[in-house]
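Ticket reopened. Same input as before:
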Amino acid sequence: MVAFHHLGWRKPAIRILDRPSVFLAGAVSALLLLWGCFFFSTLDSIPFFSRSKSGLCNCNQPNPAFNLQFDPPVSTFYDDPSFGYTVDKRITNWDQKRRTWLGLHPSFEPRSHERVFIVTGSRSTPCKSPTGDHFLLRFYRNKVDYCRIHGYDIFYNNVLLDPKMPSCWAKIPAVRAAMLAHPEAEWIWWLDEDAAFTDMEYKLPLQRYKDYNFIVHGWPKEVYVKKSWLGLNAGSFLIRNCQWSLDLLDSWADMGPRSPNFDKWAGILMNEFKHESDDQTALAYLLLKEHQQWGTKRMHIETGYYLEGYWVLIVDTLKNITERYLEIETTTGMLRRRHAEKVSERYGVLREPSLKDAGNEFGSWRRPFVTHFAGCQPCNGKHNPLFTGKRCRDAMNIALNFADNQVLRNYGFVHRNLSDSSVVSPLPFDYPA
Amino acid sequence: MVAFHHLGWRKPAIRILDRPSVFLAGAVSALLLLWGCFFFSTLDSIPFFSRSKSGLCNCNQPNPAFNLQFDPPVSTFYDDPSFGYTVDKRITNWDQKRRTWLGLHPSFEPRSHERVFIVTGSRSTPCKSPTGDHFLLRFYRNKVDYCRIHGYDIFYNNVLLDPKMPSCWAKIPAVRAAMLAHPEAEWIWWLDEDAAFTDMEYKLPLQRYKDYNFIVHGWPKEVYVKKSWLGLNAGSFLIRNCQWSLDLLDSWADMGPRSPNFDKWAGILMNEFKHESDDQTALAYLLLKEHQQWGTKRMHIETGYYLEGYWVLIVDTLKNITERYLEIETTTGMLRRRHAEKVSERYGVLREPSLKDAGNEFGSWRRPFVTHFAGCQPCNGKHNPLFTGKRCRDAMNIALNFADNQVLRNYGFVHRNLSDSSVVSPLPFDYPA
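Engineering reply: fixed in the latest deploy. New output:
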């Protein structure tokens, strides 16, 4: 740039018109300089030059959220021959590997700390119970509805990824593979095939979990004091996509049938929990051991809301809950407002103040978040003899229709009778006023 | 700008250093002018000034894609008492209503012209065939997999929204309700319960459809000349979310069982197409009538790729297609590269040059886009007597596993045997080299 000191204050005002060519040269130079800065700053978007996050991005560019067509030819953990998806392939330094991947894929970085990926699944063969697959389809549809409303992704696994980890243990390899296939996800949420969302608006309180890596629903006293394998339920858990979690999954799998230590652990579990080895008892053991040790706790037993709710305590309350919610809506106009399904979260936020006295979980009149039909075994039909198959099927119908009503509302319809899955009625304007 | 003509060619080269202040003034003026242009163009991003698409946005803002919690208290069509979701509630001016909604929800505007929403569904009651629901679950899982890879949303409808439009007609009220519940979507894509994606990478060539509002797969000559109701297949169609389409759905529904004109139309369809009234024959009639009229055509019969492919022509080719693709991958390193599932589209783009001689549809070795098991009736089991139930089930297994392999690859596994749905093997590094 030209130095100014020689101009002094003694010169009269600049007379641009005396030298229009000089003026123009100045203008052009400035523009050239600016363009040069812009050009070099956009080199980041060219794969070979990409090393850091992009800052501003144009919303009118393809896919302002995720760039699904961008995978730079820069090595990541995927290119490491020693990396593998199976349980036997130990992984180290996963936190750094994920961070590097996110750094190379900047379109996935915004809000990545809240990103949830749901994994569910069932056997690969048809259910033995005649209505089994029908209910599995409805439970899956319910989960997909929840994901669509909240912008989550979901994967349904129906193959045995590790033949030595069948049955209840099969979720471990599935969750692990999902973590590795989805480095953009911060949380993996396992949900059993027979768990349904019964509050389509409720969201995981992730801000409460910043110090935890594993959350499961249960009763701490039952696990830590009474050592009951029923003190928690492994049908629904959140696991953070990090090295600590991969190590936990390794420890958990080590207690399972693929492990040479299976018999040893079976003995320990019988001793501590008076129960045979299964994924849930093993998990209870892992929780207990962490609880008993000094140091930071990364596993949390949630008691504040139905991350997993036992259907027997829930289903008979759904009719009353429906009426309470309708009552609220009768007096709160904004909650009756029709809207695009995509902005449903807004109405969840608007509804919260009306629910401040609702409580949560057993005894409350808040919609239960997740209702789990533990013991019903809709697929093989071998339900807990405490209840009949018909009781289970009727209850599943009620819960699934209760949930479906929250979805169908956005399409203009409702099941007037929670027990009738087939019949729906169109909703009048300003329902339920 | 200062005119140059007075400079002439007789002047010597510009001597900037003679007038540094003029040069600087030129530079500063250019920058001020540029900044001014930028400022006024970004006024769009300030709500009170927003009347058009937002330009730049910061990717690090909360939820750069969709703001799910924003629904301003400004009237839209949802707040109009005369607006309704049912087929009998005629809607007018839908294009303007959608545009207004998008304008009020700017986070949904970017790329809205490409946004696809898939609708599928089945009956509300369990299938009569013992394996029916099992296959429906797998077909649904397949569709959800495709959506997850491409960022589409999907809705599975399993209630009868209009009791007077049962069976094959039930898709019309479902598609219509989806259009109204999803003003953010430009295209609604109806897919039958027994249609599967068999090319997980292929994308709809939407750029070819800018002049069309309705696309279905078929053979123009069969429809327009031979007047065959089999000249198209209503099991897969794209319909643009616009007023023209709502009017088309009204015309289509008018030919159906809810309409007082049903008998009249049944007579006309029998006369023209020699076939009883159903949704497909009615659609063929609508295509024929548009074709015969003068003026702009908005309906298109796609012949270039399997928007819907008949399984009988496809299933026996899948083994060979698998081998051809593996051959290509053996010689093209980038296609063997493991990656996050979320960036799979990138590898679809990379694969295209290798497929330039593959052709498309019958006789090609390109993966078929959508394979439809028309005639198999997996739910009620009343298959076309041309083939056996076992032939259908075996074929569905092969196609679903063929598709599943493309998904499972991202989780590190493969079905080595396309006929075996249960067994998968871990993939070695650099497979299939």
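Chain A has twelve helices and twelve strands. Chain A touches chain B through 124 residues (CB under 8 Å). Please confirm and we'll close it.
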